Amino acid sequence: MKKSVSQRDIAKVLGVNVSTISRALKGLPGVSQDLRQKVLELADENGYRPNPFAMSLRYGATRMIGIVVPDIAYNHYAHIVKWIEEEAKKNGYMCIVTDSSDKYKNEVGCVKQLINMHVEGIAICLSQETVDFTYLERLQTDNIPIVLFDRVADIRCSTVSFNDVESARQATLHLIDSGAKRIAFLGGPNQMKQTIDRKHGYLEALRERGITIRKRLVKCGQISFNSGLSDTLTLLDQPEIPGAILADNGLLSIAAFQAIRSRGLRIPEDIAIIGFMSDWVSGMTYPRMTFIKQNLKEMGQNTFKLLMDQIRGDLSVKHVVVNTRLNVRESTSKI
Amino acid sequence: MKKSVSQRDIAKVLGVNVSTISRALKGLPGVSQDLRQKVLELADENGYRPNPFAMSLRYGATRMIGIVVPDIAYNHYAHIVKWIEEEAKKNGYMCIVTDSSDKYKNEVGCVKQLINMHVEGIAICLSQETVDFTYLERLQTDNIPIVLFDRVADIRCSTVSFNDVESARQATLHLIDSGAKRIAFLGGPNQMKQTIDRKHGYLEALRERGITIRKRLVKCGQISFNSGLSDTLTLLDQPEIPGAILADNGLLSIAAFQAIRSRGLRIPEDIAIIGFMSDWVSGMTYPRMTFIKQNLKEMGQNTFKLLMDQIRGDLSVKHVVVNTRLNVRESTSKI
DNA sequence: TTGAAAGCGTTACCAT
DNA sequence: ATGGTAACGCTTTCAA
Q1: pLDDT of B265-319, one tens digit each?
Q2: Which amino acid residue lies closest to nucleotide C6, measuring CA to C1'?
Q3: What values do phi and psi take at A326, rounded to 5?
Q4: Nearest-CB residue to A53 (from B56, B96, B286)
Q5: What is residue B325's DSSP assignment?
Q6: Which nucleotide is nearest to A55 (CA to C1')?
Q7: I want to staple B168 with a disulfide (CB 3.0 to 4.6 A). Which of A275, A301, B201, B228 is the partner?
Q8: Which residues of B touch A330 (CB under 8 A)?
Q9: Which residue range(s) make up the domain with B316?
């Protein structure tokens, strides 16, 4: 790669001092019209670009933030990342996106790598394995701005999350009101706050309507297609199959959908189904899925905002909750 | 953000010179066992991290590459990016991913931004609007390593693409052999090499089997859901509807699928359909889509490899073609 | 209006 | 074994 032209290079050509070039380029006073003109022309012709590394070094600000997601290739995270990036770009920041493959060990590695890059802050969506948050607390101690988003945790840290309890409650109520009696919950790992909250909302709705809670109808495994598939099949193998399923996640929703279909059962006649997922995916199945629509743009924007607050020196811990909306389609309408 | 500890800081504490610290940290000879021990301990305790910006400045190598994609939130690109990143990480490189929103103007902006960041090379998937490649040729002139991937162009530049002509040909032959006579091609913009190539393969197959080519059956619009929807509806509004559709793209495939369904037509009985798409999406529709499976991992890995070749000084132009495979499912099996 | 020099973090070279 | 210094690109302060 060709070494790019520096202020020094321009200075040499013009036979003046670098500091003069700097002033000329920055539009600062103290340069003659003539000289400034020549400097700008030369800079343009030779494709002069300020070296951000020199700037970073000088100012100690890298204008970069880091993002850690469980799977960048997954629709949901890709969208959130896109919105964070858009917001960052508007504010003159670049993003370095890293992918933990939903593994705790990688997650720690990603964060370490980002710290090494001297990013000014990190937005993290936790892996489904993560239960030990000490590495995050250490970052806090070092005053490194951190925001947890989507999959958060109950630690002293700014977060942006969806209103998981309430949206699961609403979804469950909708299932009950559509006539379902035995409603199953298909969730992620039992230690994930997101799953806990959604399960909580589900149970609350059952209690509210006086429906008996059955442990056999609550399946909390891994967030993976295969886990969702086998858990759903287990549900379908019970003597009395559930009349509806609430899936904690897009992946699990699709897995459940396909498991149901593989058994030749009809949706929604035999089993209704609701999932937390994107409109794009929900519109793809047939019948189309009733789903909990999450505002990914708002999540991305708030995540960046909270990060910037901290970068700008406001170290208070903030929690933003993004609202969701139940979109009713054909996977739950019995009539 | 707390200023991170530098070699100078350690040197001050220990009352020795920075250069000694540097040697100790790098494991170079010329430091007493005792001192080295103390330096390493101190560095660890205080969370010393080498400053990559200082290194970049010194060596002129930023260990960063840039990626430009039309839409990072779209499955296909997200996957390729993931593989490029994985490969980059293995080689000690970080990626800066930018999103052109499939607009030419943004694409140029993304590239400029990456150049400003002094990335060592750029991998670009062109926007569907891009017809003017002069900005790329300028980069070439400046010896900035560039690789085009997925959506490439006929310019003097290394590329990684799928075997678009042949895979479209195979897909069309499959449709013909399944009994379809009137086969439509639903594609992207007419000036995109990828679309041109796929259309070419389609036409070749028709000629091979002696099937009349009908212009009305070739629809090349935008790569967007809405464009695919309306183009498909136009096809369905013709006096004699097509017996099969080959869709140039995942988005268009889904759009076509939904358009067909919205008219109450059966797949594959009334119309068969094949698309270029991912297994994940193809398995989601009902009936499941016959699709052209593209090896995204191979594309990502090759893209990084070709970029590294150039970064390492091998400036020869290389073209890698990644093979595809037709996966037959229920959207085309008439029996 | 322009020049000179220091400093940001690191390393390589030369001197001690 | 250790110290001193220049260099990377840029800005800033002070001096001319």
Answers
A1: 999 999 999 999 999 899 888 889 999 999 999 999 999 999 999 999 999 999 9
A2: A58
A3: -80, 120
A4: B56
A5: E
A6: D10
A7: B201
A8: none
A9: 62-162+296-323
Q: What is the pLDDT of residues A264-320, one digit of tens each?
A: 999 999 999 999 999 989 988 888 999 999 999 999 999 999 999 999 999 999 999
Residue B172: its pLDDT value, please? 98
Indicate which CATH number applies to the domain containing B190.
Answer: 3.40.50.2300
CA of residue B58 to C1' of nucleotide D8, angstroms: 4
* Assigned token pair, A168: 């699961």
Count the neighbouring beta carbons within 10 Å of the beta carbon of residue B143: 13
H or E, element range at B105:
helix B104-116
How many domains are contained in chain B? 3
From chain B, pick out residues whose CB is under 8 angstroms from the CB of A111: none
Q: The tokens of B80 are what?
A: 């390729």
pTM: 0.93
The one-letter amino acid at A210 = G
Write down the residue that tokens 């520096």 correspond to. A6
**Domain-embedded: residue A57:** no
Residue A2 lies in a domain: no
Q: Using the structure, give the distance in angstroms from the CA atom of A270 to the C1' atom of D1, rounded to a whole number.
A: 82
Q: Is residue B2 part of a domain?
A: no
Sign (positive or negative) of CA dihedral A73, A76, A80, A82 = positive
The DSSP-derived string for B16-40 is S-HHHHHHHHHT-SSS-HHHHHHHH
- Angstrom distance (rounded) from CA A254 to CA A229: 9
